[in-house]
Amino acid sequence: IGNLLVPNKNYIAFEDWLKPILGKMLDEQEPTVQNLSISKKQFSKMMLRTCRAGTMVVDSDACTKIRPKSTILSINDITMAGKSQEDITSFVNKMGSCGANPEIKLTLWVPGEVFSPSKIIRRMGKEIDNKDSILYWAYKNDIPIFCPAITDGAVGDVVFFHSYQKEGFVIDTAQDIKKINEMAMNAPKTGMIILGGGIVKHHICNANLMRNGADFSVFVNTGQEFDGSDSGARPDEAISWGKIRIDAKPVKVYGDASFIWPLLVSQTFVKHVEKKTSSDE
Questions:
Q1: At what angle do helices 117-128 and 9-28 cross, to 10 degrees?
Q2: What is residue 204's predicted lDDT score, i.e. its pLDDT?
Q3: CA distances from residue 255 to 9, 259, 269 in whole angstroms, order as listed
């Protein structure tokens, strides 16, 4: 609230930078109609599925011009809206008499982009163009950053202010919970280094619950067990939930993460990098 009454220069600069980006993303959420021509061979390789509106393209690897989840409206100017997958496949198969590989003219209803918190953060990393930014390097290296409470802070303020210019911006958290959980489930090994507590600690631990626990865990925070908070919960509490493997050797460091973390990095990761650098030379 203080920033609203007595504006902070950084806060105002951030708002001025983010608002037009939100405007672009809002425009990208709007569905469009696409017209294109593909070969019958390309069409036969597409994965289709019947949906309420007709037939949806589930997988379009055979034709990168088609966005997945697009709905077929017409083929060769003949309406296909509401037609099932079987009806459309049968219609295209009968086109064989027109030639060995006839051209198919498609009209598609293309859904707009639905942004999750990690997609918004990725977009910010793309737009910022500043090598001093963590988001810049995360975007460059295709590293997802998850933030389940993205609206709890300056980003949420800008989303709120922007809604008075144009309403309708949607943030889909379901995409990210699926993505982070599947990353944990599909990983051969997982490790957690959690600085601080609250939603960050619980979100990461909960993702590891989906794979019967993390293999390595380090907690750094000032939370105490007696206060009943998730931040204060010790590693053995996470083990009881299956968030850390029962045979793991987790560690909790009681202290200020802003002080402890640089010390940990200097005595672990930095030494490894220096050793590797010297061996390469």
A1: 110
A2: 96
A3: 32, 8, 20
SS3 259: helix
**Catalytic site residues?**
243
Task: Give per-10-residue mean pLDDT for the chain (281 aa).
Answer: 62 89 94 88 83 78 74 90 87 69 84 95 94 94 95 92 91 96 97 93 96 96 88 93 96 94 93 84 67
Site of tokens 């390309």: 42
DSSP category for residue 244 = B
**Helix runs in the chain, H state only:** 2-5, 9-28, 40-44, 85-93, 117-128, 134-140, 154-162, 173-186, 199-209, 235-241, 257-267, 269-280
In the prediction, which pLDDT does 1 show? 46
Alpha helices in 228-268 (DSSP H): 235-241, 257-267
* Structure-derived torsion over alpha carbons of residues 8, 197, 126, 19, reported in degrees to the nearest 10: -40
b/e map 201-212, b = 16+ CB within 10 Å:
bbbbbbbbbebe
Residue tagged 């003949």 (tokens): 78
